[in-house]
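User: Here's a chain of 260 residues. Predict its fold as tokens.
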Amino acid sequence: MTEHIARLDSRALVKVSGPDARDFLHNLLTQDVETLEPGALRFGAMLSPPGRLLFDLFLWGDEDGVMLDVAAEKRGALIQRLSMYRLRAKVEVATDQRPVAVSWPGVAEGFTADPRTAALGGRAVGERGANASEDDWQAHRLAVGVPDPARDVDDGTYPIEANFDLLNGIDFAKGCFVGQETTSRMKRRGEIKKRMLPLTFDGPAPAAGTEVLNGELRAGEVLTGRDGAAMALVRLDRLDGNLSVDGRVAAVYRPAYFPV
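Assistant: Prediction complete.
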């Protein structure tokens, strides 16, 4: 099977180093940073104090700290946010100009398995000889049924609505992190009314914000997509029935990582 490799120009890197780097990030992010071994890769996020999603992050363990893989358009804002929290911590925050690469359907040589789900393939830092485009990768991601937090969320989205708890993006056993109280309460009490799920239909993707209807009832809204499929934020109590979008018959499907 041919491995596809693409460079993700939509992603960028931030290096956090220094003697306090791991403790500093561990207290901020949804993921366990203290046990992150050099070369290991984890998925996580930085949240606002009320628990809203600010940055989706891939965390690469380094000998002297952690490399953060973030949406390119948000790299400056991430650096600013980290600097705000730094205070007296002995850490340095700097950009790294190497690119991010992905491989699929498997984990190509020199890549590390995507920590969200094995179906996504692999991830790497640095040039890797691309033979496919980022658009090809986005089509694969959507086919697997994984949201793109950099494109599918707004400043009102909770990480659980974007399936971070199902995609290994939140360590509920690690202790405190910014936004932890709201996130843990939603998970513990089952207060999850909406989630991002893939939606299928015939024809081009409706505009972002287009209503998904269950009969005459609003069931959710379209986020981003392409011909025949889109990610949608949908109400879990209105998935069954006659769904439609933009006057077309639609269907929500549950990805393999999603609980039955």
